[in-house]
Every structure is written in structure tokens, then in C-alpha cells.
Design brief:
125 residues; mainly alpha; 434 Repressor (Amino-terminal Domain)
């Protein structure tokens, strides 16, 4: 694992892919040429995406995920290629039965907690 693997930066859901990618590059101190080399893409391709001239496709996103050592699903979601529900399903389907049941129990507990909180808030209003 490289020294820049696992770097996380501040971002918002509204952040465009090009801005997210630029922020990831800054956090890792990567230039266009180095990212292109790691992603096995031309620097012109990376540059066009960073400038919003071109939109990223699935193959580009997968190459970027590998280059930045991030899960493919995360990069595909940032690019708007997959949505949060499909990301959740993709990740969930990779778990074994016991893990899935544990996640479902946790989700049910969170939903019930939200319901209780909402009832208390409504009663106070």
C-alpha cells in the first residue's frame, strides 16, 4: 500500500466529479501526468475530465479507482454512473448471509431509533 492510499478529503455530495478528482489529486500531491500514468490513461484524457470538457465513463472511473487505491464503486458513484441505492446493493450483495443479517438488524435498529426520535420531536412541537 502506498503512502497516499486511503487518503480521505472533505467533499460534498454536490461536488462535481472533476472537482472531487482534483481534490483527491491535491491530497495525494499527484499531478496530471502521474495520475494518468498510474491509471494507464493519457494525460490529455485526465486533463479534459478535470476541465469538464469530457465526462468520465466506467472504464476511466475503474482505472482512477485502481490508481487512487479506492473502491471502484466509490469512484463510479462520484461520477454519477451508479447511484447510492445501487452502490448499497452492490456492497450488500458481496457480504455473506451472516454479515447481511447483521447489517439488516443494524438498519432496523436505526430506523426504529429515527421513528422514536421523530415521535418525541413531534410531541414536543
Amino acid at each position: 500500500m502506498t503512502k497516499d492510499a486511503g487518503v480521505r478529503i472533505g467533499y460534498t455530495k454536490e461536488m462535481e466529479f472533476k472537482d472531487w478528482l482534483a481534490a483527491e489529486m491535491r491530497a495525494r500531491e499527484l499531478g496530471v501526468r502521474e495520475l494518468a500514468r498510474r491509471a494507464r490513461n493519457g494525460p490529455g484524457t485526465v486533463s479534459r475530465i478535470l476541465h469538464g470538457v469530457r465526462t468520465p465513463g466506467p472504464a476511466f472511473c475503474k482505472a482512477i479507482a485502481q490508481a487512487l487505491e479506492l473502491p471502484e464503486e466509490e469512484v463510479l458513484e462520484r461520477a454519477g454512473i451508479i447511484t447510492r441505492p445501487s452502490l448499497s446493493y452492490t456492497l450488500f450483495s458481496q457480504l455473506n448471509d451472516a454479515q447481511q443479517e447483521g447489517i439488516l438488524q443494524e438498519m432496523r435498529a436505526l430506523v426504529e431509533e429515527n421513528r422514536r426520535t421523530r415521535r418525541v420531536t413531534e410531541a414536543e412541537a
